[in-house]
Fold this protein.
Amino acid sequence: EDQVTQSPEALRLQEGESSSLNCSYTVSGLRGLFWYRQDPGKGPEFLFTLYSAGEEKEKERLKATLTKKESFLHITAPKPEDSATYLCAVQAAPQNNDMRFGAGTRLTVKP
Amino acid sequence: DAGVIQSPRHEVTEMGQEVTLRCKPISGHDYLFWYRQTMMRGLELLIYFNNNVPIDDSGMPEDRFSAKMPNASFSTLKIQPSEPRDSAVYFCASSPGTLNQPQHFGDGTRLSIL
């Protein structure tokens, strides 16, 4: 069965303290790995899609990378407004259009 | 552009009552998904539609849950009769018709069954 595991469950950082979130997956036939940000009381907001090992995507202070077994979301010099829950999800063959989500990492950035 | 719109944002009702949640997907998106989010189980896919046709409803917890998509711009998720364990946040999402595209979520309906 496809599995997506995120670690750590929660992460507290000081403003400016860079770190990484992990998403490990076991699926047969990965079609895409997705990162989302979720703020309290809101729906998940799409950040990145990664399709193949070695691929990287960047947006402001965030950088996502992908290997054959896991993905990392690197946060460089975070700010308090980066505080949110970060979710990863995978799409795998043959069910190409539904996604399995991890439980998320709750990030808190203190000023 | 308008995103996915869900209504109501909050619903509080008593056990045994019928609950109807509504969703308007992004115009032009061919796929529509219904999810449930709880602290214990995270985000779970309940059902999804392609071009208004239900494709996979294996995540629907039991017969008390039903979903319809009468046209490309509207879908409902109904619970009848509702139970306290149905309390959760229900999200609707939509995505374009091509494969491997990200889903775009609404802001959810927070459902409390007393």
About this structure: Chain A has a mean pLDDT of 93. The CA atoms of residues 22 and 101 of chain A lie 13 Å apart. The radius of gyration of chain A is 13 Å.
